[in-house]
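Exercise 7b. Backbone tokens:
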């Protein structure tokens, strides 16, 4: 483990001893979380007085864990544990605001700017909205809601808010091929028989419909958002259906440490003990344990058609 640590812009690697370093990275719906455990037999960290909200950066060889914000500090017997997140606290604070005649990317870029983040997009269609309201919700919750409606997702990594079309990223070339031995630790789950065939959503003014399989159950829901026209209503129904069904076929896989892969991208699996599951998979979550030298992958099969 060759972990290097910067705290508030100053490298402190020579002054510390790392006991454990586990990094959870997510493609959506959650901030990346780092659990860093430091040897502290001399009880120095308490006198250094680290605080929630302060910035740190960690690397491990070729792996750049990126810029992080301290969430919690926990002194223990001879150890000191720091939990840090890729998402700044400002994205978790509740706000109330409304916009008239605003675009999707404008909303996302404003949220990024409010938290001091840069902004990147991949494959996103910049939709126009007549009216949007954020009512006593955090920026993270509000943007997640809009992303579901538009078939998109976002993550925060190394000081950047990255917004992407899920369908677009699922169609990208796999980052590589992973061969899964029959004696390795893996689990495949197929719940595709329980997927919804369509979605019907309404806000009282418009009712949107999207059907992928007319022979399966239709999901119905009232949406707490303004809908300005029928096209928008139907598009929101498609986004809701994608969010409901995207986890139909999933996998978990334990491997040696993988530094060349990232959530939000695809990988090709070849499994000698379960060849029917071979093919391209979308990485939703990675847990890198740098002390153990292992990675646990969480994946799902890309949705087809929508």
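Sequence design result:
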């Amino acid at each position: 483990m060759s972990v290097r640590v910067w705290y508030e812009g100053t490298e402190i690697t020579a002054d510390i001893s790392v006991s454990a370093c586990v990094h959870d990275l997510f493609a959506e719906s959650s901030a990346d979380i780092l659990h860093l455990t430091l040897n502290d037999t001399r009880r120095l960290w308490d006198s250094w007085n680290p605080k929630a909200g302060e910035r740190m950066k960690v690397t491990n060889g070729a792996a750049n864990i990126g810029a992080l914000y301290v969430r919690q500090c926990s002194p223990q017997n001879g150890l000191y544990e720091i939990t840090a997140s890729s998402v700044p606290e400002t994205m978790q604070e509740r706000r109330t605001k409304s916009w008239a005649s605003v675009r999707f990317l404008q909303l996302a870029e404003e949220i990024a700017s409010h938290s001091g983040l840069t902004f990147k997009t991949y494959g996103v269609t910049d939709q126009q909205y007549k009216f949007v309201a954020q009512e006593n919700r955090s920026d993270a919750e509000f943007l997640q809601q809009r992303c579901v409606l538009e078939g998109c997702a976002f993550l925060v990594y190394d000081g950047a808010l990255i917004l992407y079309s899920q369908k677009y990223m699922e169609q990208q070339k796999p980052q590589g091929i992973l061969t899964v031995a029959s004696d390795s630790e893996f689990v495949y789950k197929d719940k595709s028989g329980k997927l919804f065939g369509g979605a019907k959503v309404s806000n009282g003014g418009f009712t949107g419909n999207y059907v992928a399989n007319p022979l399966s159950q239709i999901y119905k829901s009232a949406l707490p958002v303004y809908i300005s026209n029928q096209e928008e209503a139907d598009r929101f129904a498609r986004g809701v259906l994608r969010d409901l069904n995207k986890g139909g076929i999933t996998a978990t896989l334990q491997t040696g440490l993988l530094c060349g892969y990232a959530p939000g991208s695809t990988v090709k699996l070849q499994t000698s003990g379960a060849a029917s599951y071979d093919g391209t998979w979308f990485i939703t979550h990675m847990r890198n344990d740098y002390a153990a030298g292992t990675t646990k992958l969480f994946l799902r099969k890309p949705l087809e058609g929508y």
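Instructor comment: The mean pLDDT is 94. The CA atoms of residues 190 and 249 lie 4 Å apart.
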